[in-house]
Design goal:
Low-confidence stretches: 1-7, 425-436
Structural class: mainly alpha
Distance between the termini: 36 Å
Number of strands: 0
Mean pLDDT: 85
Radius of gyration: 21 Å
Number of helices: 17
Order of helices and strands: HHHHHHHHHHHHHHHHH
Amino acid sequence: MSSSPALSARGSKLALLVVGLCWLAVLFDGLDMFIYGSVLPHLLETKTFGLTPDRAGDLGSYATFGMLVGALTAGTVADRIGRKQLMIGCVTLFSLASGICAISGSLAVFGLGRTLAGVGLGGLLPTAISMVSDYAKGGRVAITIGLLMTAHHAGGILSAYVAKWLVEPVGWRSAFWVCVLPLLFVPVLIRLLPESLSFLVAKGRTEEAGALAERYEVELPAVAAKKTAADRWDALLGLFRGGEWVQTLLYWLASFGGLLLVYGVATWLPTLMRTEGYALANALTFVVVFNLGGIVGMLAAGRAADRFGAPRISAVWFALTAAGVYLLSVHMPMGVTTVVVFLTGVFLNSAQTMIYATVSIRSTPDNRATAVGWTSGMGRFGAVFGPWLGGQLLAAGNGDWGFTAFALAGVSSMVFIGIAALRSARQPQAGSDRDQLVAAH
């Protein structure tokens, strides 16, 4: 293909289009994910549907369980219907599910809405990451995915403002009606988002793929060799052969604690800050600051890992996260608390990503995807457990222990990833891509 500036600009235009559309989709994903935590203090104070802290924890776990289902099935469904169609389906599903929450007349119906929303949320993120990976300019895949992940935290920031502006004057249902608005984005995706080139090539739709590639002057991906079920099982069993089973379990335990911490804090941060004596408006401001920190952390963690090593950064980041989360259990001046919340956001989310980086570096090329995928999958059980744990502590009148429990999860992940790094005798694999790491989040 020609490499003229004009044609190169056309390829860049396509990459910008795909990244821009996926960024907006992930923004809506983040909004829907964080909106429950943002309105939760109001739901508890008004005792909506007779909601109690333990039931609120259950509801938070419904969404993360749905995300587990969505994440585990996304790859299989995308292989059948295409990544574009799956993205459209996921946005439609979590938007309509928010509508169910908005019109719900009982806790059971509200819980159904959150579960269905979780399925859509869990399926969207890995699919969007695969899409931008297809179209990112050469050598810019990792930074493009890092940029995409900022949209998730931007959605968290938006959720706090939606709650601050609408819940008190209009009611909590209005916040979930806002989460239905991404339905208006679906026709835009249908019209403008191209199908994944990798999917088209894999399905033998070479003429369609060639026409798209020629139109925007991008390279067609190579046809990947299809793995049989036996190949996949062999890759999984390889994680347990010899002494590898100890490493594998350590990574899984570290990921469990990490995602317990991520989703536990994401669900309960505003409510726990209310129990520490902060006003509701200030508690929601902390959600904004926390997600601003998450954006900074996602952009900075990769650079730090490249310089000092992903295992070391993961362990240090978890230690700093645990310290920050524990400090939140102490009522401090507003300015000091804001700084602590920001720094906790910086380290919390990227600490988990560095687990995936460690697993990828320590894995061989033939089982890297399996190792990262299963580490993420085991971790998502922690994502289900975290919101439930926070609810149980509050229900037992031990809200003060909420931040302490989450801090202990951070300490456990620090210990597990640290031991795994010390035990590993492998040398880092040259050229290991970071583009699959955030996808596992």
